[in-house]
Structures are given as structure tokens and as C-alpha cells.
Amino acid sequence: MTERERTTRRTVAVKRVVGLLYPRGEPEWRRWTTDRLRDAFGPIERESASFDWIYTDYYRSISPDLARCFFSFEGLCHPYGLPDWKKWTVALEAESGVQGPAKDEGNRRVNVDPGYLDGARLVLASTKDNAQRVYLRDDIYAEVTMCRRRTGWEKFFYTFPDFASGVYDTFFDAVRADWRRDVRAAKGRGTGTLEVEIE
Asked: Vertex 42, ends 176 and 136: CA angle to 5°?
């Protein structure tokens, strides 16, 4: 590819976040996942408390009694990597099945949802298409799950019920404050945006 054909995009950097569903009575799966997230994405900056999962039985195959928690990671990153993060977490879920009692990647023990947050929005990745999702690449889609306005986090008609409940808002507000701090520091160093070459 020639220099003329190569396109460089500039974008504001984001905070990577990950949501985890795991069996409430088996906290070792939270520890197992935390270790692998740290290896893949670097030091964890924030880790939420565990929240009760009371919203759907869709994940009953993992466990009838689930807990939810969230992680954010130190530093800023480029949102272009979202499809790769999702593919990695899909593989991690399959690995949890192999490591679990069934020894079968089809019987995952965790559900891992990567995304990112900036000053305006929370974006989550999905392998499933829907009207509110846009295709990225490699069979991965993105969804703006919530947006941040002056009055707080605004939900949409399609926002997942647990996010719409507002129970996670305090955690995401804290991560947003971390994002604001890091962007201010990056701009002070002249690096408030990141560049990536799109071929």
C-alpha cells in the first residue's frame, strides 16, 4: 500500500471496561477471570463490588445464581481494538468451560463483556446483530449502551435491564472521572488523541 492509499484516523482515547458474570457460590471463577484479564489488558484500575443478577435467566446454563461485577484498566487505549477484545473474551469463556467440571468449552462458567467508556458514552461489544448495533469487523458488533449527559447516564429503549436500573452508574461515573483525568494529562503531554493506520 502506498502512502497515498494509507489513511490515518485520529480519535480520542478511551477507557477499557469489562463486565463479568460468574456463579455466585464459586468466587474462584471471579479470581480466575481477574488474573486472565490482568494478563491480557494490564493493571486493573477499578474493580466493582458484586451485584445481584436478577434480570433474566438467559445465562442459567452458567449457574442459576449469578453475580455481576465490572473492571476498568489503567491508562488509555484505542477503541479500534474492540473486536479483538471481544474475540479474546469469547475464547476465554470457552476456556472456562474446559477448566470447569464439565471439561467442555460449550459449558462456560463465565460470561465476559468487553467495551469502552469515554466522556460521552459506554460502548459494549457483541457477537449478535440487532437493530441498535453496528457492524465493526470479524463478526463483531458495537452498541452504545448508555450515554452520559449532565443529568447522569441516559438509557435507551434497548439498554439491558441491569444497566437501565442505574445500579452500575456510580461505578461508571468513577471510571469516567478516571478517563477525564487521563485525557487531561495526555493533552498536557500533547498526546490526547491516538492515531491508527486503516488499510
From this structure: 65
Q: What are the distances in angstroms from CA 20 to CA 37, 38, 114?
A: 10, 13, 9
Tell me the whole-structure pTM to 2 decimals: 0.88
Task: Let me know: does 8 contact 198? Beta carbons within 8 Å.
Answer: yes
Q: What is d(CA 163, CA 117) in angstroms, rounded to the nearest whole number? A: 14
Tally of structural domains, the chain: 1
Specify burial of residue 132 (Cβ count, 10 A radius: 0-12, 13-18, 19+): middle
Q: How far apart are CA 67 and CA 109, in angstroms?
A: 12
Q: Whose grid coordinates read 479470581?
A: 31
Select from 119, 96, 122 the least CA-distant residue to 109.
96
CA 178 to chain centre: 16
In a domain, 198, yes or no: no
The CA distance from 160 to 163, in Å, is 5
> Please, are residues 12 and 193 in contact by the beta-carbon 8 Å criterion?
yes
Which range of residues forms the domain containing residue 96? Answer: 8-193
HSE, CB side, 13 Å, CA atoms: give it for residue 29: 28
In a domain, 73, yes or no: yes
**Averages of pLDDT over each 10 residues, the chain, 199 residues:** 50 92 95 97 97 91 95 95 97 90 77 96 97 96 96 96 96 97 82 51
